């Protein structure tokens, strides 16, 4: 009986129901897009963390035991994921492979010119500055290549994106609550006579309230499904273009576990948000 009453209330005021579903849809559409963006940015950061993000070149007079000592010192910090030693011979092979179509460049470079090096990957991207400091302090290191600006920009953009996303979601969530409270309040006002009759024949307070609470939950669930569906569909459609743009960074395909977890979390929040909004309305308008 409660669900029938809820459905009847929705059917009799389709424009109000559409407004409530629309605001919920916008809220969770924004939430889904930002969740996908944060998921993608974390994949990008993980990708760069797995690559040699620091390269240190050694002086010609550096001895093998000095290089091994520095390698052990780096590993002892617990901040290094991998260290790869590139000898002069290997550096020459790499150089020849990269310039195999230019014989002039091949003739100009010999093994003695190219330095030995260490290629280092950090466990966390935030640990790169301290690793860089250790390398720079070594007297055997002549130069350290560290794309500090790229790493710092990527991290700062991710943090800014997270803050903007949370702010927008909170604002839209508050707006959703106010709109649903207003819509449910209007419906309660329109049904005052029916509610009075139900109370006269012995209906309990919660028997009267439940249809309105369920209505708010309905708006939240439907709006969430639509918002998540549009966001997921957009990501699926744009995946080939984004893959080409990112040039090999393995963001796609998005894990089904992540999708189901995100949808489940959004539905749970939607149920709480819809129920809370409706409960505020019945407390305010249904004395």
Structure description:
This protein has 287 residues and is of the alpha+beta class. It is built from 10 helices and 4 strands. Strands 2-3-1-4 form a 4-stranded antiparallel sheet, sandwiched between helices. It starts with a helix and ends with a helix. The mean pLDDT is 80.
The helix tally amounts to 10
Secondary-structure element string: HHEHEHHEHEHHHH
Helix content: over 70%
What portion of residues belong to β-strands? 5-15%
Number of strands: 4
Tell me the Rg in angstroms: 30 Å
Any low-confidence stretches, pLDDT <50, length ≥5? none
Q: In angstroms, what separates the terminal alpha carbons?
A: 22 Å
How would a crystallographer describe the biggest sheet?
4 strands, antiparallel
Shape descriptor reads elongated
Strands, helices and their partners?
Blueprint: H1 2-12, H2 14-50, E1 54-58, H3 64-76, E2 80-86, H4 88-98, H5 103-108, E3 117-122, H6 128-137, E4 141-146, H7 148-190, H8 192-200, H9 205-246, H10 256-285
Antiparallel strand pairs: 1-3, 1-4, 2-3
Helix pairs in contact: 1-9, 2-7, 2-9, 7-10, 9-10
């Amino acid at each position: 009986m409660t669900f029938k009453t809820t459905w009847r209330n929705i059917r009799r005021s389709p424009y109000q129901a559409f407004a409530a579903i629309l605001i919920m849809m916008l809220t969770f559409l924004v939430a889904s897009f930002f969740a996908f963006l944060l998921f993608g940015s974390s994949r990008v950061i993980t990708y760069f963390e797995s690559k040699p993000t620091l390269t240190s070149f050694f002086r010609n007079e550096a001895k093998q035991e000095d290089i091994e000592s520095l390698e052990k010192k780096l590993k002892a910090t617990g901040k290094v994921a991998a260290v790869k030693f590139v000898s002069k011979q290997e550096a020459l092979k790499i150089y020849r492979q990269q310039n195999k179509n230019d014989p002039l460049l091949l003739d100009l470079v010999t093994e003695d010119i190219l330095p030995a090096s260490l290629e280092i990957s950090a466990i966390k991207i935030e640990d790169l500055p301290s690793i860089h400091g250790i390398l720079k302090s070594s007297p055997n290191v002549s130069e350290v290549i560290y794309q500090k600006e790229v790493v710092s920009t990527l991290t700062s953009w991710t943090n800014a994106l997270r803050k903007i996303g949370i702010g927008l979601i909170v604002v839209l969530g508050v707006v959703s609550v106010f709109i649903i409270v207003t819509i449910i309040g209007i419906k309660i006002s329109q049904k005052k006579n029916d509610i009075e009759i139900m109370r006269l024949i012995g209906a309990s307070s919660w028997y009267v309230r439940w249809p309105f609470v369920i209505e708010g939950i309905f708006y939240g669930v439907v709006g969430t499904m639509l918002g998540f569906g549009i966001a997921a569909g957009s990501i699926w459609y744009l995946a080939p273009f984004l893959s080409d743009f990112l040039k090999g960074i393995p963001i796609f395909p998005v894990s089904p576990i992540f999708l189901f977890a995100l949808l489940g979390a959004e539905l749970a929040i939607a149920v709480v948000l819809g129920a809370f909004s409706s409960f505020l309305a019945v407390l305010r308008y249904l004395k």
